[in-house]
Amino acid sequence: MSDDQQNFVPAGFEAPTSLVGEGFRLEPLGGQHNERDLAAWGGSIEHIRATPGFGRN
User: Fold this and answer.
1) Euclidean distance between CA atoms 50 and 55, whole angstroms
2) Each residue's pLDDT tens digit, 2-57
3) pLDDT for 12
4) By the 8 A CB rule, do 40 and 46 touch?
5) SS3 of the chain
6) Residue 6 CA to its chain's centroid (Å)
7) What integer pLDDT is reported at residue 20 of this predicted model?
8) Which of 6, 10, 11, 33 gets the most CB atoms within 10 Å of its CB?
9) Do 25 and 18 form a contact (C-beta atoms < 8 A)?
10) Which residues is 19 bridged to in the sheet?
11) Would residue 55 be called left, alpha or beta, if left means φ above 0 and alpha means ψ between -120 and 50 degrees?
């Protein structure tokens, strides 16, 4: 790296693993979410399939 370039991410930066606010929580999906994620997908499949553009390649 030349002297006029900078790192995009500062040295020592650690990305947050979650973000919690009033009424919501964001976190990366992992194995602990599989059962609820599958239930949500299965319960919404008709809505998902009706979404314009669904199934297009």
Assistant:
1) 10
2) 666 777 888 899 989 999 999 999 998 899 999 999 999 899 999 988 999 988 76
3) 92
4) no
5) CCCCCCCCCCCCCCCCCCEEECCEEECCCCHHHHHHHHHHHHHCHHHHHHCCCCCCC
6) 28
7) 96
8) 33
9) yes
10) 26
11) left
Indicate the length of the chain as a whole number: 57
The pLDDT value given to residue 1: 60
- Return the structure tokens found at 2: 């030349």
User: What pLDDT is stored for residue 57 in this prediction?
Assistant: 63
d(CA 25, CA 27): 7
Identify residue 35 by its one-letter amino acid code. E
Lookup: tokens for 49: 């399939």
Structure tokens at 27: 């976190």
